[in-house]
């Protein structure tokens, strides 16, 4: 698992405007009491929230990796309050727990930071309770809400926060990052950035957990073979993919931190427990991501077929670098003979429906089996 170090603002890549706003607010000491970080998945919102918390709580007034910052990074600082979904939502009891913790004095006296991650999954009840905290703010406390879009929050919550937008990062930014910070060659970086659809968090996850990139590949494979398998075989192959998705676990992090040994028993235990919870949460997220990656792999295959058939209709040759799956060119050309661009388009529609169904927590087995049937009727 990638751990944030809270050693400096440079840990954030490509969000200069958001970072500049926070830093100048911190310097002047005039930040609003509630911030709302919005932007696409995986661009650094949560990391920024932690760095911001470190800056508020650190004696040197900026994240610098000192022991205080480390405790923030490890989410064990007593004045950092983290609210994350338990199960699928953030429940009202969690908001009440947070409020009762805030009603006591700050432990270390430098102020307090509350981070509500995935704030858009607060239940109605939780959101109403939270609204009260926003209306009657606790002294020396900054609330940071993190979510993809303000659209999914109560307008009354949004109107009481200062929104800070995180920009989607382009494929170029991502390529630059992979070369500069991950030491990849230009070709490797370009290919990975293209597959990750320019989504930073996804590319990072793939770099740190190469086993995850396999699901995308599996999706491509599955789309390439779908027409030639019998229905029984196609359903079985999809089911085996689903089982692998279901059993997926991220590889464990590094050896136990010597830092743990330096803590007293109670804090060490608390930290260990916190990390276990975090690993479980990361795994759950990674599974969800892997399911999307799998479907996106399939999407990329039909997208390439559309491109091939469009360009060929125009009597031209497709440039290799325009394909998402240049290494599958032979299979793509073979399938394009049977699946014209209208059919490919209808396959993309079926895939989009499947993604939505997964987001809405429809049973995975049902969604994927239904998808096989849908796709086979369209190719
Ligand atoms: Zn520090």
Can you offer a commentary on this structure?
Helix content is 57%, strand content 7%. By secondary structure, the protein is of the alpha/beta class. The chain has helices at residues 16-28, 45-57, 67-73, 92-102, 124-135, 155-158, 171-180, 186-195, 200-208, 210-225, 231-247, 258-261, 265-313, 329-336, 341-359, 364-378; strands spanning 34-38, 80-83, 112-117, 141-147, 162-165. It folds into 3 domains: 9-168, Rossmann fold, CATH 3.40.50.300; 169-208; 210-378, no CATH class. A 5-stranded parallel sheet has the order 2-3-4-1-5, with helices on both faces. The site of zinc ion (ZN) has 7 residues, from α3. Residues 54, 58, 60, 64, 66, 68-69 line the site of zinc ion.
Characteristic terms for this protein:
single chain, 3 domains, 379 residues, alpha/beta
Rounded average pLDDT: 88
Helical amount: 55-70%
As for the number of domains, it is 3
Report how far apart the termini are.
Answer: 40 Å
> Largest sheet, described in full?
5 strands, parallel
Strand content: 5-15%
Q: Total helix count?
A: 16
- Which structural class matches the secondary elements? alpha/beta
The count of strands amounts to 5
Summarize the structure.
The protein is of the alpha/beta class. It has helices at 16-28, 45-57, 67-73, 92-102, 124-135, 155-158, 171-180, 186-195, 200-208, 210-225, 231-247, 258-261, 265-313, 329-336, 341-359, 364-378; strands at 34-38, 80-83, 112-117, 141-147, 162-165. The protein has 16 helices and five strands.
């Amino acid at each position: 698992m990638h751990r944030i170090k809270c050693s400096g603002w440079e840990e954030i890549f490509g969000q200069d405007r958001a970072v500049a706003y926070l830093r100048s607010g911190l310097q002047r000491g005039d930040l609003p009491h509630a911030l709302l970080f919005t932007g696409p998945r995986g661009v650094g919102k949560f990391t920024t929230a932690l760095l911001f918390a470190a800056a508020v709580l650190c004696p040197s007034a900026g994240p610098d990796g000192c022991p205080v910052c480390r405790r923030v990074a490890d989410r064990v600082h007593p004045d950092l309050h983290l609210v994350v979904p338990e199960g699928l939502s953030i429940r009202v009891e969690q908001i009440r727990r947070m409020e009762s913790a805030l009603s006591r004095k700050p432990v270390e006296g430098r102020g307090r930071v509350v981070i509500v991650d995935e704030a858009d999954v607060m239940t109605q009840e939780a959101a109403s309770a939270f609204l009260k905290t926003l209306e009657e703010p606790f002294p020396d406390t900054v609330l940071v809400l993190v979510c993809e879009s303000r659209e999914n929050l109560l307008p009354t919550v949004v109107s009481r926060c200062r929104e800070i937008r995180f920009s989607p990062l382009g494929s170029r930014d991502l390529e630059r990052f992979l070369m500069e910070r991950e030491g990849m060659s230009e070709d490797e970086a370009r290919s990975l950035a293209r597959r990750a659809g320019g989504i930073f968090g996804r590319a990072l996850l793939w770099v740190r957990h190469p086993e995850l990139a396999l699901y995308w590949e599996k999706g491509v494979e599955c789309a390439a073979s779908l027409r030639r398998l019998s229905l029984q075989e196609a359903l079985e192959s999809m089911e085996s993919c689903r089982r692998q998705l279901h059993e997926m676990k991220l590889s464990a992090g590094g050896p136990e931190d010597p830092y743990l040994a330096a803590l007293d028993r109670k804090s060490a235990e608390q930290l260990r427990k916190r990390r276990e919870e975090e690993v479980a949460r990361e795994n759950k997220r990674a599974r969800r991501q892997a399911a999307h990656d799998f479907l996106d792999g399939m999407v990329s295959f039909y997208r390439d077929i559309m491109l091939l058939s469009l360009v060929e209709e125009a009597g031209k040759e497709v440039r290799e670098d325009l394909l998402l799956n240049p290494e599958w060119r032979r299979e793509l050309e073979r399938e394009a003979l049977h699946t014209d661009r209208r059919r490919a388009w209808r396959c993309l529609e079926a895939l989009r429906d499947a993604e939505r169904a997964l987001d809405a927590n429809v049973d995975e087995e049902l969604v994927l089996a239904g998808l096989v049937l849908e796709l086979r009727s369209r190719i």
